[in-house]
Write a structure and sequence with these properties.
Number of helices: 16
Number of domains: 3
Number of strands: 6
Structural class: alpha+beta
Radius of gyration: 36 Å
């Protein structure tokens, strides 16, 4: 009964308020703040009612303000502009209230001002809370869509037509060539999202804001750039990422792998698979360089295709080294360094911190145990291929697959 009486008084109180004047007040507040006047909803009516009748609005009456806050978030209106709209509207309405409200009786004016201030506080608080809730929900939806898009893009098995359409908001033209790089650190991938935001600014500055994407995928940082980097003399993607990641506290923990550039949606997935495989190979082979390109490990991909033949080669060529004093590892390290240094014994000795005589002795020991001589080209090729295969399979630290 009391609620109906209050609503009746409010209706009577606002009957004398000119709707056109309220609309003009809202339009002026919109010009002041740069925010649309329709975001005020019933706010001006609630203010006028409170000033005239002294009644505070009910939660149901304030619900429209919350709807306006959610719409402001969806339209991308900044919170500051929206709050300025509400404060400017309240100021202008108070200045223009009928003379009967702005009475010479101080008690009447004080009661009206108190009621208006309460409505302003309730409405602005509700508006801002609804706007923030909607902004958080929009961010969650955008992040979910972004993750789904990246997963489909890198997997390469989604509907291509739909993928091309979904790529447009991200500034990607999937008909052009793209190159992809992966960065991974050995621990604590939780901070990758922050790093992705930082790297995105740097990558955009280097390659432009079209056909560029920086994101996270599992434990990886993913960077996608246009594929025509060589022709346009753009910076090498792996070098750029390595340099920027080296600025962080965990700089020594990062390893970067870069796939080759391919055209089309499936080309991105292919570049991703190449980069991922290169990253795995660089870890297994303990490559010292912080960045590895897919073309640099092609020989290992070839060697790993026919695993049974490679295992047979390792067994027939290298397993005799197991009878050496100290095991096969020192002799394998000597062979690997010898081939990596161009077959120069003095350079091999320098890299291994050994004397040339020690290197020569080890190479002679390899010949005695295996029957393969590094000075005979055909035999050296067999030895080098077997050593690469051993590193690929982690032998002798790990047993060869049966």
């Amino acid at each position: 009964m009391a609620g109906r009486q209050r609503r009746g008084r409010a209706s009577q109180a606002t009957d004398g308020i000119d709707a056109e004047w309220l609309a003009e007040t809202g339009a002026a507040a919109s010009r002041d703040s740069g925010a649309p006047a329709d975001l005020l909803g019933d706010y001006l009516t609630l203010l006028a009612t409170a000033a005239i009748s002294g009644d505070r609005p009910t939660p149901q009456q304030l619900a429209s303000v919350g709807d306006c806050g959610r719409r402001a978030a969806q339209d991308g209106i900044a919170p500051g502009r929206a709050v300025n709209l509400y404060l400017s509207a309240a100021w202008r309405l108070w200045r223009g209230l009928p003379v009967v409200v702005r009475s010479s009786d101080s008690e009447v004016v004080r009661a009206a001002a108190d009621a208006v201030l309460q409505v302003i506080g309730d409405a602005v608080a509700l508006f801002v809370e609804a706007q923030q809730d909607e902004r958080r929900e929009l961010i969650r939806r955008e992040e979910s869509l972004r993750r789904e898009f990246i997963d489909d893009l890198l997997r390469g098995d989604a509907d291509v037509a739909a993928l091309v359409e979904r790529a447009e908001p991200f500034g990607l033209d999937l008909t052009r060539p793209h190159q992809l790089a992966l960065a991974m650190k050995s621990h604590d991938p939780a901070g990758n999202n922050i790093l992705a935001s930082m790297l995105e600014k740097i990558v955009v500055a280097a390659y432009g804001d079209r056909d560029v994407l920086v994101a996270t995928k599992e434990a990886f940082l993913v960077a996608l750039v246009p594929g025509e980097t060589t022709q346009q003399r753009l910076p090498d993607l792996g070098t750029l990422l390595t340099r920027e990641l080296a600025r962080g506290r965990d700089s020594g923990q990062w390893r970067v792998a870069v796939g080759r550039a391919y055209a089309g949606a499936y080309g991105i997935a292919r570049s991703y698979e190449e980069a991922r495989e290169a990253l795995e190979l660089s870890e297994r082979l303990a490559m010292p360089a912080p960045v590895v390109h897919a073309q640099d490990v092609l020989v290992y991909r070839v060697l790993g295709r026919d695993q049974s033949a490679m295992i047979d080669l390792i067994r027939s060529v290298l397993t005799p080294l197991e009878s050496a004093r100290g095991g096969p590892q020192p002799l394998l390290d000597t062979l690997h360094t010898f081939f990596a240094s161009g077959g120069v014994a003095t350079e091999t000795a320098r890299r291994l911190h050994l004397s040339v005589r020690a290197v020569t002795y080890r190479l002679d020991r390899v010949r005695e145990l295996t029957g393969y001589d590094v000075n005979v080209p055909e035999q050296a090729y067999n030895l080098q291929t077997a050593v690469l295969g051993a590193r690929l399979f982690g032998w002798p630290s790990s047993a060869l697959p049966t």
